Amino acid sequence: MVNVRKLEAELWESADLLRQGSKLTSNQYCMPVLGLIFLRYAYSRYKKVEAEILKNRPKRGGRIMPLEASDFAAKSALYLPKEAQYDYLVNLPEHIAAANLVNKDGHHMNSLGEVVNNAMMLIEAQSEQLTGVLPRSYTDFSDELLAELLRIFNNSALDEVGGDIIGRIYEYFLNKFAKNIASDDGVFFTPKSLVKMIVNILEPQSGVLLDPACGSGGMFIQSGDFVNAAGMNANNSMTFYGQEKVEYNAQLCLMNMAVHGLTGVIKSGDEANTFYHDAHNLAGRCDYVMANPPFNVDKVKAESCDAVGRLPFGLSGVNKNKEVGNANYLWISYFYAYLNERGRAGFVMASSATDSQGKDKDIREKLIKTGCVDVMISVGNNFFYTKSLPCSLWFLNKAKSKEIKNKVLFIDARNYYTVVDRTLNEWSEWQLKNMNAIVWLYRGETEKYKKLIAEYRETLNREGNFSDIVHTLKNEIAELRKEAKDAVEEAPKRDKKRVQQSYDDRIAEAEETLTIAKEAQWLYEKFGDGVYADVSGLCKLATIEEIEDKGWSLTPGAYVGVAPIEDDGVDFSERMAEIHRELLSLQAESNDLMDTISRNFKELGI
Question: Which of 45, 246, 337, 461 is deepest in the core (most CB within 10 A)?
């Protein structure tokens, strides 16, 4: 199994070492390198979709009908002409000039840079929205440097882990370059976990989707995947609009969408500064609004905001310089204002915004009284690549059912996550489903909950309740570890590594199953066969009256309380005695080692 975090770091280190060895700055190097990863990612999706198309491809005269661009568009993938396919580029001869290659305009090409530029032009010809977007500065690179970069991103491990992971590598590089060249500290990319949670809860199906701070387009990509997975075609059922002030980010967004076969209208530059422009004239017209706007932006010109409108609850606090000191509630007001009469919004926001005071509190009270605040989720630290700050997910719904119209579901997920490494947390696929299940029950969508429970049972494929399955798996893993130890000790020296690997694979598979069983147990113990209930420390369904009693706070922790401490079945005094015995044993071992070291020094005459 490939360690993706390690692979990401190795690819970055290799590419960055090359940058340092060249005369190019991060600004000059960034987009061309991302362009190559774009090519690799596009090729990965191309090959995957090509295999799907060929499975049922009709034959004519005994020959399979040739593939066409429309076949790939139907599968939400970008069609790649042969000269734009990654394996073609990476296998070119060393001396390009002698290869008699011509570009799309029929001109002879003399360098690898010209060939890669031509690949970009060929792809732009396949996608109208990419016109003028893809980098074409590859002649700035020496052939040797460019060939080495192509080789680095042709790492065979990428094929082993699949297309989705290549997307994550792409995202990782976006974030690494964002660290190096982003000029606005408020701008950072949204991790896939948070995007998936927003999309899963909003459940987009058809209509207009706006992201007024779209960055590299993660909301569009995940929404497209969600719609396609439901058996529809995202481009036919959805219309994607984006605004992105930073033109560099808008280019990445268009590249990202093209790889996934999505079309959309993305505006960038000054006209796309959402504080001052409704660039697509979408106020009151959106079925869905999704965003991760920059947090806590200051010095926003109050008069310019007021002139554009989209402020149904009034302007945020303004200082003596006629500036909004914190723009969080500008964003929140805009998101509400963009929605049509049945619209839904999901967005990431600074944790402080859930109970900020002053003018913010007045706006929040008015928003709550509309009855459209749907779900509030607290998220812990370390979910972002480049920031460690906590945040909240806000969900608005102008078409809530009568039963929940004047209620808000609060979920405190600060202690519910999977640790990726020391600096990064995320929600696993099953954890995303579990939190989604709480929302389903709150909305009365019991059948969706029951389907998830059935999916758990089918995936685990074991008899008994989930608690029993967890207990059985723990015992099986303990037994496997014991077996492994004995088997490796008994194996001949030449076979030890193979035997150990065999057991490691079996243990890893069992541990993965145990993880799924624990998530099933976590959900079922709280909600049984499908009845919503408040759970201390996790979720609370609060009325508007209760929210008023809390000073119009939307902080989940103020409502859900503290989870009871679970009894782990360990006797405290017995465990302390064990620890004491272990400590004495370690001290004795340490003393023996010190004696051995001292004797060795004496023998050496030291």
Answer: 45
